[in-house]
Amino acid sequence: MAIPQTLSAKPRVLIVGGGYVGLTTAQLLQKKVKAAGGIVTVVDPMPYMTYQPFLPEVVGGHIEARHAVVSHRRHLKDSEIITGKVTAVDHDGRTATVELSQGETVELPYQDIIMSAGATTKTFPIEGLAEHGIGLKTIEEALTLRNHVLERIEAASVMTDEKAKSRALTFTVVGGGFAGIETVAEMEDIIRAAVGANPRISQTDVRILMVEAMGRVMPEVTEDQAVGVVEHLRGRGIEVLLNTSLGSVVDGEMRLVNMKDKSEADRFESDTLVWTAGVAANVVAKNSGFPVDPRGRVTGTATLQIADEDGKVLQNAWTAGDISAIPDLSGGGLPDGTCVPNAQHASRQAKVLAKNLLAASYGQGQLSEYKHDSLGAVAGLGMFQGVGNPLKVKINGFPAWMAHRGYHALAIPTVERKIRVIGGWVNELVLGRDYTPVRDLENPYGQFQEAAGGVKKKEAAKG
Ligand SMILES: Cc1cc2nc3c(=O)[nH]c(=O)nc-3n(C[C@H](O)[C@H](O)[C@H](O)COP(=O)(O)OP(=O)(O)OC[C@H]3O[C@@H](n4cnc5c(N)ncnc54)[C@H](O)[C@@H]3O)c2cc1C
């Protein structure tokens, strides 16, 4: 298959996924590779990098959805941007199969490849989960969740059927890790604000549940802080159910199971099910033919080179971030000795990867190993609330919230995005909370079709 003339014929550094790792490595490599006569190509189904730590704040409405993503086109001017999905890799032949956004497939030759397609939401075979669950990995999910929650409140306020009203006002989040806790806290915050502004419903009509299968939440913070988080959330009226999992969700009826004795823990109806119970390496890891570990992650060395299980390095093949299993030389990390999947590692690995690729393939500098001691973690729990242990100092409440905002304002890539995000925060402090849902995003043509006599757009286009 010939490469389309619109794509570069120069020796290519192919970056599979333009998230934390992909965007950062592209930024660091693009000018140097260009100067050496090559091209950096970023392939991603999305035309932007999503700053995932801000997704809960998008749900809460503190950050405008567009501001939590970083445009590839705008910030990677010396790179080739391809909106598409890598579906397979032939590393011996140095080509990758790319499904372009309009469905066409091309075989893209490369000199070096960086596997950085991140992770997807981990799910389990739970009846009804696929139909009823909402994940929180993408900006589209965060925006949809926000609109859904606010729309349910508005709808409930005119319902006369008490059962339907209770179902609309019951919100369930499964998964008590960082993402789940931040999300349930932001949801509670915005729900209380929206309900408070609606005289037809009361706060006592609302039920919010956080369901966690383990005996504690947030493995990233200390045990006593995790206990403090649970107490804090319960103090805000959130029902935190530990050692509990989702058994099934059929027609909106959730069945919760006690993990200790497998008995039924609760059964209720809820229109909202948010699923944040962990992540799994992107499936392109397995489909690429590169060596993967039992968790499906591409195996790599501390130099961020892809290597087989005997540690034999594959030339011109690199990996980092959530898709990879990289040894954690600091001695922390997962029980198998690899780095935990988080942004702290992803962004720092990206810098070492870019330097090492220049050293190995362009003779610029020396290979070095990735080693990073964790800086701790801070979580935002809604307006003015937070928890964390940055640099091993335990903080809670307002200082933690400030630390969370300060850290992420510095960490989101590009000055332009920092200004937009901080500007939004200032606007909110001055102008107050925005709890307006944007309606009809799933059927934006509805009004026009009604006005046009019910003719569907596609049918009209066919003539
Ligand atoms: C809600 C939430 C909150 C979080 N909060 C924090 C936090 O506070 N602190 C922290 O350290 N970490 C946090 N994380 C984790 C952090 O965001 C990830 O660890 C980080 O994004 C990993 O970076 P990555 O580059 O490996 O993957 P990603 O940033 O996920 O990027 C992967 C990219 O690959 C693209 N892609 C997928 N499939 C393909 C394909 N087939 N071909 C080409 N491209 C593909 C995707 O579109 C995406 O752009 C959070 C995550 C979530 C979901």
UniProtKB/TrEMBL annotation:
Pfam family, any one: Pyr_redox_2
Family: Belongs to the NADH dehydrogenase family.
EC number of this enzyme: 1.6.99.3
Domain of life (superkingdom): Bacteria
EC main group: oxidoreductase
Domain FAD/NAD(P)-binding stretches: 12-349
Keywords: FAD, Flavoprotein, NAD, Oxidoreductase
Name the UniProt record assigns to this protein: NADH dehydrogenase
Molecular functions per Gene Ontology: NADH dehydrogenase activity
